[in-house]
Amino acid sequence: MVHIRTIHAQSRRSYGRPRMTEKLRASGLSVGHRRVGRLMREHDIRVVRTRRFKVTTNSSHKHSIKPNLLGQDFSAPALNQK
Known about the structure:
By secondary structure, the chain is mainly alpha-helical. Helices cover 35% and strands 0% of the residues. It has a domain at 2-42. The protein has helices at residues 2-10, 17-26, 33-42.
């Protein structure tokens, strides 16, 4: 478990059972993927999934900027007036 916890911390909690088994075997330990999976489950070691940052704004567009017709005045005297 010491090896599993160390590798899990070094991988920033991103290694699951397959990569963890591969890393343990590379370090000279004789383990199977089922044993590694069981140990990780028993000791509540889980992979933290992260999403990549995706840019959704295109700041270099060629469109003209529309005028601000409301001027931050969002109050309307009646329905469908603004």
